[in-house]
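Quick question, first post here. What does this chain look like in 3D?
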Amino acid sequence: MATKKNLVIVESPAKAKTIEKYLGRNYHVVASLGHIRDLPKSQMGIDFDHDYQPKYISIRGKGDVIKGLKAAAKKADHVYLAADPDREGEAIAWHVSHILNLDPQANNRVVFNEITKNAVKDAFKEPRSIDMNLVDAQQARRVLDRIVGYSISPILWAKVKKGLSAGRVQSVALKLVIDREREIKAFVPEEYWSLAAEFQKGRGKKFAANFYGYDGKKRALPDNAAVQAVLKRIDKQRPFDVTNVTKKERKRFPAAPFTTSSMQQEANRRLNYKTRKTMMIAQQLYEGINLGKEGTVGLITYMRTDSTRISSVAKHEAATYLHETLGEAYAATKLRKNKNPEGAQDAHEAIRPSSVMRTPDSLKEILTRDQLRLYTLIWSRFLASQMTPAVYDTMMVQLEQNGVIYRANGSQMKFAGFTKIYQSSTEEQKENKLPDLVIGDQANLVKTDPEQHFTQPPARYTEASLVKALEENGVGRPSTYAPTIDTIQKRYYVKLQGKSFEPTELGEIVDKLIEEFFPDIVNIDFTAKLENDLDGIEAGQGDWVKVVDQYYRPFAMELKTAETQIEKVQIKDEPAGFDCDICGAPMVIKMGRFGKFYACSRFPDCRNTKAITKEIGVECPKCHQGQVLERKSKKNRIFYGCSRYPDCDFVSWDKPVGRDCPVCQHYLVDKKVKGGHQVLCPNGDYQEQVQK
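> Answer (accepted):
Ran it through. C-alpha cells below.
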C-alpha cells in the first residue's frame, strides 16, 4: 500500500511549483488561487444584529478548485497551509481550513519570508496554529470596507451616476489629490530675485558664488530695486576679499533597504513603473524564477512589508560579498540602525535579495527586462544599505566687498562608499570643486547674473508622491496602495496628465458629497486611527467586533442623513457646437468611464458617439490628405493619429512637428526628454537641441 503524502496549500501555482521542488516526493503542493471564500457580491453580507458576523460564501467560479482541494485533503496524511505571511495570507489559510473542516488550533500553518530551499524546509520544522488575531484584523478591515463601500456607493449611483464607488482609503487618496489641486489654484506667486556671480582668483579657474547678504546679515532680494541697491554697493574695479573659509568632511549615509512603500516610490521615479506593475513583478520575483541547473528559486524576500529590519544571516552574506568584490573599506563594520516608519508592524524583514550572491549580471540571460530592472534596484539598494558612507570634502568660502557678502560652496568626493553601488533618485550629488583659497586672498568679480523668479505652487501628486503621502499620514497599508491608486483612476475620479494626477469634474463632485455627508471617511486622522486599531487587533490588544461597532455607529447616523438630504446631482451635458451626422440632432459632450466624449442628444434613440479629438496643425505624414489629431487611449494616454482613420492608419505616441528629417526624410517628432523637449527623428538619424 502506497504511503500517503503530505498536502501543502498555497495561493498561486508558481509558488506551488517552487515549493514542491524543495520539499521532495513526500509532499504534494497545490494552489487555492487566492481566496476561496468571501462576502457575496450581490448583497451586504453582514449580520448587523449578531455582532457584524460576515456571511461568507464560496467564491463563484472556485467550485472546481474547492472540489480539488477536498479530494487532495482526503488522500493526504497531513495538510499544511502555507499562504503568504501576512493578514491576507492568514485569512486565506483560515478560510481553507474551514472548507476542509480542519482544526484551526492544529499546528498546520507554515510561514516563510523567502522562498528558498533552507527557508522553506526550516519553516516546515516549526508549523503553528492559525493566528486568529491576524484573521480578526483582516476580517475587521473587510467588514468595515464592505459597510462603507456598499452603503455609500448606492447613494452615489442614485444621486450622481451608476458605476461609482466609495471606500475608506480611496476616498482619502482622492481628497489628497483634490486638496492639492485647490492649493495650486489658490496659490499666488511671489516675486523674488537671485544674484549669482562668477569670481576668479588671478588667472585661475572661474568659480560660481551666490549673494548672501550685506552688513553681516543674510538678506532676501524681493524685487529688482533690492538687486540694484546691492549692485550699486559693488565696486567692479576692486576685488572681493576672502573673509572666511570653512573646510569640513561630510559623510552621506546609505538609505535603508526597501519597504513596500519606498520600493513603489523609487520604481515609479526611476523606472517609471506604475505601483501595480511594481507589485506584480515583485510577486514574480518572490514566488520563484527558474534558474536552470539551480531550479526554481525565490529571488527576493516577501514584498509586502513596512519594516527596514534585516536578518543577521543576510547581513553576514552581504559583508562577505563586499569584502570579496570591493574590499573591506566598503563593508560597514557598524551598521546604522534604520528607524522603522511610525506605525510599522515590523512583521517581516525589509525587501532584499534572498541571496546577494545572485548578482543582477548573473541573471541577465534569465530574467525579463522588467524583472531584471526591479531586481537590480532591490539588490543594489540592499547591498548599499550594508556599506560604508560616502565621504565628501566640503568647502565654504565667504567673499566681501563694501559690506556685500557672497558665498561659494564646494563639494568633492573623497571616498565613494555606498554610492559605488547605488544612488537614490532623490539624492543625486553634484560635485563642485573650488580653487584653493585662504582668508586674506582676493578674487575678482568676473560677472553678475541677476535673475527674476516666482515662487512655484506645490507640485501635483505623482504615483510615488501619493504613496508617500498615504504612508506618512498612516492611511492604508503596503498591500492597499496599488489597488487604491488603480481604483480612483478606473472610476475616472483622477486622470494622469504626464506623470501627475489631476482630479476630474466627477472626482470633485464625489469628493464634495463625501466630505459634506461622511466627513469621518475622508478625515485623515480618523482613517489613520482605524489603521492603528486594526494593528491593535493583530497584536491581540483589541476585539474586532468592538472596533467595527465603534466606527459603524456614527457612520450609520451619517448614512440616514445622507439618504434624505443629498439632492440628485445633474452632470449637465455641454453643447458640442455641431450636429449629429446620422440624425441631425445637436451633439453634446458627455462624461464617460474614460473621460469626455461626443454623443447625440437624442440618446438612446440615436447612439452616435465620437471621440473628442484636437487638431495639432500638422498634415498627416503618411497619406498627406488628413490632419494629425491628438487622441486619448482607453488608459488616458495621449497619442496622435490621422483624421482619415480607418482609411489611413497613421499613429504615433510622439507628436509630429510637420517637418522631415534632413538626413533620411522620415517625419520628425517632438519627444519629452529629461530636462524638456527635443525634436528628433524616430530612426535615430537626426536630433535637435533640447528645449527646456
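The first strand starts at residue 6 and ends at 10.
Residues 191-249+391-454 form a domain with the Topoisomerase I; domain 3 fold (CATH 2.70.20.10).
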